[in-house]
Amino acid sequence: MKERHFLPNPADNQSGIALPLVLMLLVVLSILGTAAWTSSQSSLKQSSLLETNLKCKYLARSAVDATKEAWTARWIEDPNSVPVNQTFYNKYDEAAKKFVPATEGEYNSGDYVIKTVLSYNNGICTITSTAKIGDNTATVKAVSEKLTDTVVSGTADPWYKKERYEVGISIFGVSIPLTDWQAWSITPGTVSQTITTNGMKYNATYHTTEGKVVITTDGSPLFANGTVLEDLKKKTGQSVLGLTIQTVDSFRFIFNMVTYQNDIKKILDRLGDNAPFNYSVTGLQAKRIDFECPVNLYWNSSVVPDIEWIRDLLRLGGLDNFGYFPNPHSLIISAEVINFNGKLTIGNSAFGNLTLSLPPGGGIPGDEVYRAVAKQNAARKAANNPNDPVVDLSLIDKNAKYGIVRFGGTVEVEFDNINQVSLVNGKTFFFRPMNDQALSIGTEPTTFTEINRRFGLNITVGPTVDDTLFQTLISKGYLIPATQNDMQTYRNVVFHYE
Fold it and tell me: What is the mean pLDDT of each run of 10 residues along the chain (498 residues)?
């Protein structure tokens, strides 16, 4: 039989298909492997680079910290001895685990070398450190808040001065001066606006600056006289309590003052357009404000003549403040550190209010306050002093900003019948503004405290005000007991990193 030979079917040629598939698979795997290797090397390189950058940043920050601490210690010892312009180099000795001096040449050619530039101009210290490792560098900068005292007396916008006041009588349009006198007074600010809240109209003026402001007198009290005398002059002319040919309005005002002693809103509502003045507010804003003098917010010294021999007789009779005028004025102090070194006299509700606030963007972080108070609590617990008990840390809002206030002298609240000032006399507190608003201090919740003082009757006329008695502020955590060391810490040098 003859043999048959068949040609192979191309579709059955598996060996011809397999080879290209294998080759293609090898190519793909090679590409993927190369990509994975490249990616891993890139990640490793980036990780290494990131680690180097972090090392640079930590070195620069360490150099700034060390320079800041050394400079601050020298400034506290003698502000006139600090360097004002300086450039120096250091390197980190890994074996000795410390910084040692270096040269500019080592900075340009070596690793782990830091260049630091320090400048102190216009009361502000700036420290900039740049660390170098290979081709990598990192820079850290710290800037102090203004450290020098800001002069606010005798400037174009004086915060306070010894004012000369004059009163007289006006007869048929002819002004006849009777007497004049002088008193230290906080002046209205150059920035002013009129505010109406809950039907009350306020003349508000402001002073703002940077740094630390020190307010001093010749030992006499500093009054916050507002615009009472100016308002009286506009309404009734140069006069003693407005006793001029416009006596009707003046007597109506005096009658209402006696009848509604501490309800300024009721007085002004009843007088309407005949009211001789509006309620006024003055704001003072700086980093730190030190009152190195007595401050009297309640009594107005610009209206009634301050005749010395009359004052001496009144003092002998125990009537030191007789003839002064209750002050329809509020003083707002906006600062991180507030220090009253002398006697502080404030009012209740309608007259002579004191309000504390913080500058925009300023304040001590709540968690920093928490740590400071927690540290001091250990000392309080060991001392077991009933006048300085352990502070309830739950009252501290870690997310809030605080200021610090010291009542270094005695505090007096006019017509205070519960002796609340014993809680704050000679003490220091961290203060927190109330619900992002300014914090009124020591105000009683009733507006008729004169009746309360004289007869013990708790009568309220008109709308009440917020209860901001010292005990209330302490119990609610708006005033947190601090120490003199806390005051000193925030009175010295504070740097911010940029």
Answer: 45 58 65 59 52 86 89 83 91 81 88 91 92 88 86 87 79 72 88 69 82 92 79 58 46 52 52 59 90 91 71 66 68 92 83 86 88 92 88 94 93 74 90 79 57 47 63 92 80 74
pTM: 0.69
Question: What HEC string does the chain produce?
Answer: CCCCCCCCCHHHCHHHHHHHHHHHHHHHHHHHHHHHHHHHHHHHHHHHHHHHHHHHHHHHHHHHHHHHHHHHHHHHHCHHHCCCEEEEEEEEECCCCEEEEECHHHHHHCCCEEEEEEEEECCEEEEEEEEEECCEEEEEEEEECCCCECCCCCCCCCCEEEEEEEEEEEECCEEEEEEEEEEEEECCCCEEEEEEECCEEEEEEEEECCCEEEECCCCCCEECCCCHHHHHHHHHCCCCCCCCCCHHHHHHHHHHHHHCCCCHHHHHHHHHHHCCCCEEEEEEECCEEEECCCEECCEECCCCCCCHHHHHHHHHCCCCCCCCEECCEEEEEECCEEEECCCEEECCCCCCEEEEECCCCCCEEHHHHHHHHHHHHHHHHHHCCCCCCCCCHHHCCCCCEEEEEEECCCEEECCCCCCHHHHCCCCEEEECCECCECEEECECCCCCHHHHHHHCCCCCCCCCCCCECHHHHHHCCCEEECCHHHHHHHHCCCEEEC
